[in-house]
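ERR on first pass: missing label on line 2. Operator R.T. fixed the label and resubmitted. Corrected input:
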Amino acid sequence: MAYIQLNNGLPGITGLLENRVDTAAPIRELTQILLRGKSTLTEMERELIATIVSFKNECRFCTKAHAATVIALGGSKELLDTVYHDLENAQLSEKMKSLLVIGSKVQEIGKAVLPEHIERAKKAGATDKEIHDTVLIAALFCLYNRYVDGMGAYCPEDPAYYQKLAARLTTIGYDRPKDAMARKGEESFK
Amino acid sequence: MAFIDLQNDLPGIRGPMIYRPETGTILNELAEILLHDEDNTLSRGDREMIGAYTSYLNDCFFCQNVHGAMAQHYYECDTQFIDSIKKNFLSADISDKLKSLLTIAGSVQKGGRYVTSEQIEKAKSLGATDREIHDTVLIAAAFCMFNRYVDGLNTWAPKDMQVYIDRAPMRAKEGYSQLGLTK
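pass 2 clean. output:
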């Protein structure tokens, strides 16, 4: 049960965003640009940054949601487990590992990002824009994770919910679903 | 020196905002709704204070001074009063309701799971509405993003405190959504 009365029965972040569409609009738009907009990082790579930050913030809802999205975009559970627990041995490029290290440092606190973390990424071929977006995606998920858990948002246990959510996030993306039916389908998991 | 070439010399968050205006504009829109929008029962001063306090806890020099100066402007107080709230709001001369909201903001800064139903109940018992609690959580969460953006890219910040104080009246008048790319 959320700490405040919501105007809908949707779980997790979706319930919070639908409850306050004015503040939701820029949050959704920012996410759509960063995770689905034009980028030299793939959608899965950007979702991995969101997932590792959510995992480290121990936000169950966001971790499950973005892990399911990584899988929907071609990732695997094994990849996710390695990213969570043994990043250096993950089946990822050196560049992607270095960006996930930066994301993890941002999760701790801004000042935890050190010149050596940036140097490693640049040496591995990361561009300034990729580094910028990595920092902002990680920072954005520090917002999301705190919003979801700080409001006590409901976190469904049924994996089918996250598959449904991932299906929306890999098709419609992060824009507000115009089709009310899409939201209705998610509501049944409450 | 910022970690990446921002192609401008602006301090703090304004550097990366102008480097990537597509996202910068939206970050300002979010700040405008949360901190400056008139349609809110929390005063602008209290909302800025929640941002300044969260930034203080995140040790973000630029944000805590920008938003501390904004709160100081709205409260019509001195810097010492803002500092006393940052350092120990429980013994500061502010309302019990604001203390209960700053407690929630402090928990959000540590992590969402640190917010407890007792903290929420306390705020409600002191007259905080659901919307005020929501905005407190979202302002604190948003500053956990802004602070990380500013420090994670190692942006520079003016050391002279007067700079922040001098800019506050203009920002209060104009708000955040009009924050130009060169001002």
